[in-house]
Write a structure and sequence with these properties.
Layout (H helix, E strand, L loop, with lengths): L3 H32 L2 H27 L14 H30 L8 H29 L2 H30 L3 H29 L6 H13 L5 E10 L2 E10 L5 H18 L3 E9 L16
Parallel strand pairs: 2-3
Antiparallel strand pairs: 1-2
């Protein structure tokens, strides 16, 4: 589990994300009114999404920092997944609206001249600088705290750089050579990126809410740790599920039934510490079973993980 210092860093990173998203959304809304560029409209929609994602992420970080209580014995991290489902819906609607408007403009031949391209490029340039600075800061925090929420937010903002650069290119081409159709093409590309992003966020949230097992690579890593741990003669019923940034692990290990309870507890506790050190995002529960029949027991192998 993250310490209080890590929690504060994560919340600070989330607050910076909300601030940057709000500033950029205001700047791009003004630039859209000045230029009428659909590429800026697409970037504005993406920034409004960023603001929602960042607000949801900040709320989730604050909420997830609360300790388990009587009503939520496994913590409060599933709130992140509920928020993500709403965010994915917003992404999809925004992408369809922007893409539809761009496609209709291209098919109708209604290529409208843009205005104030210079101001538009200036706003998008500021957007790129602020986004780059935010990503650098978030990645530093994520490396220190290993927060999956902060890391995912940094990755999301990193993907925003392409639409911003595309908007600058379309504005420059329109100002320099009078080619206004590129604006609609850039908007279509941005809409496709938004659709894929929405699908990815929605799938991840749905999988978590449906108790889908964790990443196979993480499961394989836990199996390797259990298989090599001293005193463990086998293991079975390795089950995992995700909730927000947490991964819950349930594992049965097979121990020598002749040893004392204190010795068995020490082996289980040491194994749990080793798994937590390798995967800090996990919450591990270990059950201890005696090896009744060495020939019948599954030697150092996992059981099925539904």
């Amino acid at each position: 589990m993250a310490g209080q210092g890590d929690d504060r860093l994560n919340i600070l990173a989330g607050g910076a994300s909300v601030t940057v998203a709000a500033v950029l959304a205001a700047l791009k809304f003004w630039a859209l009114l000045e230029t009428g560029a659909l590429s800026i409209a697409a970037s504005l929609a993406d920034n409004l999404l960023d603001l929602m994602v960042s607000l949801g992420g900040l709320a989730a970080l604050v909420y997830a920092a609360r300790p388990p209580d009587e009503d939520h014995a496994f913590g409060h991290s599933s709130a992140e997944d509920l928020a993500a489902l709403g965010q994915s819906t917003f992404i999809t609607v925004s992408a369809l609206a922007i893409g539809g408007a761009a496609a209709l403009r291209l098919m109708s031949g209604d290529i409208r001249p843009l205005e104030a391209e210079g101001w538009g490029m200036a706003v998008m340039g500021i957007s790129i600088l602020l986004t780059t600075g935010l990503v650098i800061g978030q990645r530093r925090v994520a490396r220190r705290t290993r927060s999956r929420v902060v890391a995912a937010d940094a990755l999301h903002y990193l993907s925003d750089l392409l639409p911003n650069i595309g908007a600058i290119v379309s504005l420059y081409v329109a100002a320099r050579w009078g080619v206004y159709s590129l604006d609609s093409i850039v908007a279509l590309i941005a809409a496709v990126i938004l659709l894929f992003g929405g699908a990815r966020i929605g799938k991840g949230a749905f999988d978590a809410l449906m108790d889908r097992r964790a990443d196979p690579a993480l499961i394989a890593g836990i199996e390797r740790i259990a298989r090599a741990h001293p005193g463990v003669h086998g293991f079975h019923d390795l089950k995992t599920r995700t909730a927000g940034a947490r991964v819950f692990v349930n594992l049965h290990i097979e121990l020598d039934g002749a040893q004392t309870l204190e010795e068995a507890h020490a082996i289980g506790a040491a194994l749990r510490r080793k798994i937590l050190a390798a995967y800090p995002e996990t919450d591990v529960i270990i059950h201890k079973d005696p090896v009744r029949d060495r020939r019948a027991a599954t030697p150092l192998g996992p059981g099925p993980d539904p």
